[in-house]
């Protein structure tokens, strides 16, 4: 069982990491869009000379990254739903017991609630991971070349 302080620390560090990755993803996307728009324009003007590998990658890499993100989110949401139902069962049984709950029972319920909160905060970061990885890799590959 994790301590409440450890759980709160994990929640805040996960939120901070996710926030940083979100900003990195947006900055990388700007670089990638800036580099790819001329490729798209050139491909529309003359399809025979277009960079078909890059143009194909634009579609497939997004589909793969978003599929991985969706899979991660679905897995996390299933786990969170289980914890939510258990937390609600804890609250219901404590509220309808007609007596004060034991310290162990309260601690177990609090632990489950903290894991639920930590899981919900972490789910967004885990879902963002494949999108962030692809966007930043493309920005490095397509970005300005160092002289």
The biggest beta sheet reads:
none
Order of helical and strand elements = HHH
How many strands in all? 0
Given the helix and strand composition, which structural class is it?
A: mainly alpha
- The shape is elongated
Low-confidence stretches: none
Overall pLDDT, averaged? 89
Give structural notes.
The chain is an all-alpha fold and 147 residues long. Helix content is 86%, strand content 0%. It is built from three helices and no strands.
Features:
147 residues, elongated, mainly alpha, 3 helices
Ordered list of secondary-structure elements with their pairings:
Layout: H1 4-45, H2 52-96, H3 103-142
Summarize the structure.
It is built from three helices and no strands.
């Amino acid at each position: 069982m994790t301590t409440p302080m450890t759980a709160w620390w994990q929640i805040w560090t996960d939120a901070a990491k996710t926030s940083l990755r979100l900003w990195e993803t947006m900055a990388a996307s700007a670089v990638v869009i800036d580099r790819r728009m001329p490729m798209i324009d050139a491909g529309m003007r003359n399809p025979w000379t277009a960079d078909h590998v890059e143009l194909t990658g634009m579609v497939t890499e997004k589909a793969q990254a978003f599929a991985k993100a969706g899979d991660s989110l679905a897995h996390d949401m299933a786990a969170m739903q289980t914890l939510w139902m258990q937390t609600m069962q804890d609250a219901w049984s404590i509220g309808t017991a007609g007596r004060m709950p034991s310290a162990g029972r309260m601690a177990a319920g609090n632990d489950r609630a903290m894991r639920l909160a930590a899981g919900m905060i972490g789910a967004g970061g885990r879902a963002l991971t494949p999108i962030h990885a692809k966007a930043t890799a493309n920005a490095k590959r397509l970005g300005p070349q160092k002289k």
